[in-house]
Amino acid sequence: MAERDVLLEVEHLTKTFPIQGRNRERKQFLYALDDVSLQIHRGETLGVIGESGCGKSTLSRCIVSLHKATEGKIFLDGQDISQMRGKERKNMHRRIQMIFQDPYSSLDPRKTVAQSVMEPFIIHNIQPEGMSRLERALELIQAVGLDQYHMHRYPYEFSGGQRQRINIARALTVGPELLVCDEPVSALDVSMQAQVLNLLIRLQQEFHLTYLFISHDLSVIRYISDTIAVMYLGHIVELCPAGDIYQRPLHPYTQALLSAIPPSSPFEEKEQIELKGDIPSPIGRQPGCPLASRCQHCTQRCRTERPELKAVEKDHSVACFLYSQ
Amino acid sequence: MDKHLVEVKNLRTYFYTASGISKAVDGVSFTVDEGETLGIVGESGCGKSVMSASIMRLLASKAGKIVDGTVHFNGADVRALNENQLREFRGKDVAMIFQDPMTTLDPVFKIGDQMVEAIQAHENITKEEARRISAEALGKVGIPDPEKRLNSYPFELSGGMCQRVAIAMVLCGKPKLIIADEPTTALDVTMQAQILKLMKQLQTESHTAIMLITHNLGVVWEMCDRVMVMYAGRVVEQAAVKELYSNPMHPYTWGLMDSMPALNDTPKEPMSTIEGMPPDLRLVGKGCNFRDRCKYAQPQCAEVVPEPVDLGNGHCVACLLQTREHRLEREGGKRHG
Ligand SMILES: Nc1ncnc2c1ncn2[C@@H]1O[C@H](COP(=O)(O)OP(=O)(O)O)[C@@H](O)[C@H]1O
Ligand SMILES: Nc1ncnc2c1ncn2[C@@H]1O[C@H](COP(=O)(O)OP(=O)(O)O)[C@@H](O)[C@H]1O
Ligand SMILES: [Mg+2]
Ligand SMILES: [Mg+2]
Q1: pTM score, two decimals?
Q2: Which domain holds residue B77?
Q3: Which of A280, B60, B137, B230 has its CA 20 to 30 A from that of B332?
């Protein structure tokens, strides 16, 4: 196997949002991300899985600079993105593109497909090599599986799956290296979902893309990823090769998540690991393990001390005291 | 079999729009027995919600009309019910659970008041008694501190908790049939698992029949006795759940099963998909609605509407190429069959 090369590195990233409390004197903070560290290797897919509100979108928004990190750093090819200025910063914006979940609101309804796909050329003032912008747009439209006659149509004429293809073509216009995909197939029906997943996998090879792929569906994440990060309440609780998530889930939260997935056949009897109660509030920084209040293995130590994300074997890290001697 | 709780025959509901007639439900027949769970699967737009609204006679749009077919509930002709009977039917016999619990709950009233009103609409009991029943129902669906929660507004609870309240409200009516239209689609998997478990447990206790509409085959495997697969307004296949899984027969069902990524699939290996898109329901009528996306299609598929044929054990398939005499060879199916 070739040497794995880190394209993007996130170091101790924390993102808080101030909360307007009733009590004016005490300002409170919502911890959307709490000390998150990870690496994304060039040409690979890092899948992020977790339930709604765990911080997945906040993580992707920090990476594409839609949010400013409260603490911590993000490095692209070893360079701190918060320190980039001018041309370098513009170039960074070009190298990292994003695809959103909602295929309906992410396209301008008044622009034709051709106009939407060509727009990034104008924003970034780029002239494709050896061809016109329109010719390049057509190439991309065809690369995502649409036809020439779609070029001059408007978004309302397309299904959700087709719109997501248009969004992908638009993201590819400026030749990005990292594609941040925030639940790109969650709003699609299964047959459309399979088509878009196949497309993303084909494009990854064709355009040498690196993906940060977010989903709340573990089978989708398992299918598209090389490495999987499991998030809970703003924390990464487990980080492992995609195959391990099914073979060797270590964190009690990962195990509960796996056990909650509906069976893959009517003959499968699933043992459910139930988590007690609801996800706790992310407001204010809690001591201890984020899962402590719901975990069946919880000890006194879990309530007071925060378990760090630690490698328990090569490439497989978990943040849980069950695995530390 | 003698009497079914629900018996729907050849139901057709069309929408009359300026741009044509949309055949949202086009000749659907099925039955549901007491205590049984029937799963209804199919992709969005295939007519699942219009079908259930038709059964309830709750078509919201004036453009939508039941143009043909019969619906019987407990032997009574639902299409012939008058306003009073209809109110009784909707409130007492059948209850619905929706994807968005706020379809059932009113954001501006306290949960307790809403539940009391719903109970008193059908039962002649005091407010205190109705409150007691409400609190009991909330407790049953796993809401902590039910007495206190009666005084909460829906927005004070999470989505999963609101869905529990909606289910508790349904319980208070002691319906014979629950139609659950994508009840867990908006929820996270751990909450979905809890709600499904709750529905199962309640069904065992009360012997209620459930029609469970979902696009998730996994939910069907977990919950249902029988399943019916819909495509573009028609039922393409119907069977007991284990039979359908082990021996699916309609090419659309094959496609549906193959396009769900499974946890044990090879990562990044191209998935088999159903190419293309569902047809425009204003343009269908002649022939099989799936033919344009079907790799097995033959010339006759464009001419003849396939009728459901019982191939044994109540396994019905509507495909001209799947008959008692002749079976299709399934290509590249990744699972059984
Ligand atoms: N702009 C914002 N202001 C305040 N809170 C926010 C904002 N964006 C996200 N949050 C909160 O941060 C947490 C993480 O949200 P998000 O990243 O959207 O989660 P996910 O994408 O995993 O569902 C949630 O509790 C959410 O309510
Ligand atoms: N108000 C309406 N006006 C016109 N057509 C409608 C209306 N409501 C539904 N339809 C048609 O009925 C079809 C089935 O819709 P629906 O039952 O909601 O699908 P599902 O619940 O399976 O996603 C849709 O594809 C649409 O064409
Ligand atoms: Mg999100
Ligand atoms: Mg629906």
Answers
A1: 0.91
A2: 6-224
A3: B230
